[in-house]
Amino acid sequence: MSNKKVGRVLNLFVSQSGVSQRIEKNLLSFDTLGVVEDKFYNKNIERSVLISSMDSYNLIKNYGLEMPLGYLGENILLDYNPYALEVGSVLQIGNTVLEITQHCTICNHLAVIDVKIPTLLKNDRGIFAKVVGDGDIKVADEVYLLGA
């Protein structure tokens, strides 16, 4: 199995109960139940990690709108666009291994900034993954597509 370097981690985020904004982190720990510090930890294994691309934020910016990083609800923000990856594709980020489980559907909460955002990001919000290999991911870690 070969590994193909496809990108790099730009930002990491967690959601925590009682905190309305995403919390930016330099390092996150992952196990088979999800993102260890996240409020969605051990809730839905198939949707335990949300990966987004900077392309989503750039798309919004191209329409003259501003959206703060982390607003898409992502745990991992990449400089690589993984949205075309098929379910079952495997990424290694840092020493963590993630398997793509589904494409993210758009949430209406994104309309708070502008009503056009859910439509603009219909297929470009992110992808969900589950953790298949425990580990840590830090900002600037390289992203590899395994088996590519």
What percentage of the residues does DSSP assign to strands (E)?
Answer: 35-45%
CATH class descriptor name: Mainly Beta
Q: Kindly name the structural category.
A: mainly beta
The total count of helices amounts to 2
Order of helices and strands: EEEEEHEEEHEEE
Which whole number gives the mean pLDDT?
93
Q: Choose one word for the global shape.
A: globular
Give the tally of structural domains: 1
Unreliable stretches: none
Q: Report how far apart the termini are.
A: 8 Å
Number of strands: 11
Relevant CATH superfamily: PK beta-barrel domain-like
Give a short account of the largest sheet: 7 strands, mixed, barrel
* Overall helicity: under 10%
If you compute it from the alpha carbons, what radius of gyration comes out, rounded to the nearest whole angstrom? 14 Å
